[in-house]
Amino acid sequence: MNRRRSALLAVALLALVLALLGGRATGLFGDSLPEDDAPHRTARQPHDADDAPADDPVFTDTDAPGGRLAGGAAGAAGTASSDDEARLRERAKQLEEDPNTQVVCDLSIPVAEAEGYLAIGGHSDFNGRRVQVVDGKAYLPLVYDLGELGDAVFTERTGLFSLEGYGPATLSWSDPPEGGGHGRCTATIDPEPGRASLTGTLTLAGSGAPAAGAWVEGCGNMAFADEHGVVHMDIVTDPCTLLAMRQDGLLRTMSDPIPVVPVPGEDVVVDIEIPEARRGGLGVQIAESDAGIVIEGLIEGGPAEAAGLQPGDVVVEVDGESMTDVPLAELVERVGGEAGTSVDLVVDRSGERIELTLVREVLTPG
User: Fold this and answer.
1) Is the pTM of this model over 0.70?
2) How do residues 130-146 score in pLDDT, each as one tens digit?
3) How far apart are CA 9 and CA 257, in angstroms?
4) Which one of 1.10.10.10, 1.10.443.10, 2.30.42.10, 3.40.50.80 gives the CATH number of domain 280-359?
5) Quick count: other Cβ atoms within 10 Å of Cβ 211?
6) 20 to 30 A Cα–Cα from 275, which one of 6, 85, 107, 130?
7) The architecture CATH gives domain 198-274
8) Of 133, 83, 96, whose CA–CA distance to 112 is shortest?
């Protein structure tokens, strides 16, 4: 893997972790993070494709592009409208109080409820988040820092916001308020359909089978494929790059970067192959601590347990390279690989240096 692809892989995986913010906290390539809420946890996996099935509608209604317009038609005797308004108020309150919400953005369109996508920095950075929209406000999660999920701090104050049916819009938000609370932003969203769009057919390399439940990210947006492996989304009009990914047990595989040259007002059609080869992991739960990246638990029957690794071991080296001050996501990437291949580890166990060679295995949930 060349350096550019390696960098894209690391950034894309981090972006997905931040974008989806859900599901079990598992390390990439089969190595999992602790499931508790310990403050040293610094990464979370994207939730599985099952958590966001492609054949379920992303938005709650079709009264307006990208979501449901505020002030829709009332139901019988006004009851449905009243109940709906109460539900939206409760949802807005939940988002206001959610510790992950760091910026509240006033949109220029009266969308009652929808879900969008924010690419921090721009469409080429793969640093994305899912964004909830309620009553004309967008609630931006973790745009200043990772909160309880880690120590990373983000200096960007702009991003590209995509909402289905509208042209991608640039958002700019304030610095964090000195006295606490949410940052603010105001966004002008073009009420016209997206300026360009993309339709992709995702297949598994080798078999050619549809990559149902896979997803694509890039070009200012993110979307899941349907049961036929087809994905459709609005994209920016500038030349951009896509990545396609899929879930395979506890593991995720990804396509080569795909360059896209959008045409304003037209739909770009692409065919994307995703590796079908199953990747392997070691079967450990890991987290950052003051001592370094520490093993917190072992998956029963996994390679790590068989090799004699123990909770409390601190990972010192991977394949001869020091892991001191290496981010958690990078270590996870290094220990993952094709099932059946080996990885050399050095761990510190209460001051004793222990060298081990482990063979990566396919790990399945359960």
Assistant:
1) no
2) 899 999 999 999 999 88
3) 9
4) 2.30.42.10
5) 30
6) 130
7) Sandwich (2.60)
8) 133
